[in-house]
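task queued by scheduler; priority normal; single chain, no ligands, no partner chains; default sampling; output format set to structure tokens
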Amino acid sequence: MSLLTGFDFWGSPGPAREATYRVIFEAETQKGRLFDLALIFAILASVTVVMLDSVPEIAEEYHGLLRISEWIFTILFTIEYIARLWCVASRKKYALSFFGLIDLFAVIPTYLSVLLPGGEVLAVVRILRVLRVFRILKLVQYIGEAEVLVATLKASRFKIVVFLITVMSIVVVIGSIIYLIEGPENGFTSIPRGLYWSVVTLTTVGYGDVTPQTPIGQGLAAMLMVLGYALIAVPTGLFSAEFVQQNESHKKASNTPVRSCPGCGSLEKDHQAGYCRYCGQKLT
């Protein structure tokens, strides 16, 4: 059965499009692995070119060469993006998918630089495309671990929100008190300034740009520092407990095969899924 059943743009489905799809979206064949390796190299090289062009000493001497290299990479990524649109079952679904948008944003900055000088710096977004080629090194399990982290964050979001509200309440109270204790003469010119100091102290960052000078203010600062260390353990404990539960659930499904959606290229680990959860394309 063809992977491209339902393919209805730019001609009828055929062996060439199916072969292209397997090379670009799958990594189980030698050609697919070679393609992904070449893609990784091109992505990292193009990001390096953008970074080097931002260094004044290097740009002054090699700006022309770096710009030519950037345009070569952009043209290659544009061809690749068109090829992805050409071989998937649904051009619209792929274009609006997460990786489809990343692929598009990877080529826009250089073209944008023609109208907006300096816009090519945004091309560093290409580094996000490395995410799509994790599977080449048999790192699909890391994608699964990322799913565990996301599930953990979702499950513990209400506890984290309550924690953040508590922290913000402490910041407001302490920031207001320190403003009353120290006053403008010691650098606390307003309550927002006190809130800024409170956040910096509570998080144990301690920039030192504004500090309490009175004994009472210094005592309050010491208590806030100790409280900051205590508060660090709270979200860690909440997240860790939820992570253990989510990780156990993930291990039970760790042996399910991973399939690539022919519509948007997303990976699906649920062996019972008949359709892609992201674009609705039928899985084969």
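post-processing summary
- The CA atoms of residues 200 and 206 lie 6 Å apart.
- The chain has two domains: 15-138, 153-252.
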